[in-house]
Amino acid sequence: MRTKTKKSKDDFTQEAYNGIRRMFFLNEIVPGQKMSYGDLAKRLNMSTTPVIQALKRLEIQGLVRHEPNRGYYTENISLSEVIEIYDFRELIEVSLLPDTITGMTRTKLKKLKKALDNHLDAVRDIFLKDRLLKDMEFHMTLAELSGNRIRVACLKDLFDLLYLKYRGNILFVTPMEMVDAAHIRLYDDIAAGNLEGARSVLAGHIANVKAHAISSIQRMNREKHAKI
Questions:
Q1: Which CATH number does the domain 79-227 belong to among 1.20.120.530, 3.10.310.40, 3.90.78.10, 1.10.340.30?
Q2: pLDDT tens digits, residue range 15-49?
């Protein structure tokens, strides 16, 4: 008979952390919202202690803020932060391309092709969240093939900020055909060992996605002010 392993404090904290992240991604928690750790604990079916520890981790990541004597709040949408995130994304992703192409093998190329195919299949789906995940997985796969762990970890944190803090319908507004075409051209250049071509395509792709995200946030702000 198998003995059931008792969960540690860290296990419960990680469980709470993953659960709150999932709420962010599913838009069950929105920007500017006050977060009651008592309510979160009930929704996650656990005590408040791991929830509070999880919120502290999310605070370090910049996803929530703590106000003394008031509690935890999700951060509001910041246009300047979105711009900074995309600029940093471009710097990191483009800088990884030389190592990715230099160390490319048949096995690694197959892995990238699978990530591309998964994205191309997902973008035809009606579920926006699936497209967001597959888009992120394609970019993260490309980055991970470089073998640079520190920059890849930084890139993952940036994706967390984009896809957890900001709603997908704000950011993922670039026409699907444009995203498809950019990913395909990027794969083709990498497969051909064309570093300059890959740099140009990737930089242009991220800049284009950023421009659409900026336009979406500006439009949302105008609509909000008009209502006020």
A1: 1.20.120.530
A2: 999 999 888 877 788 777 888 888 999 999 999 99
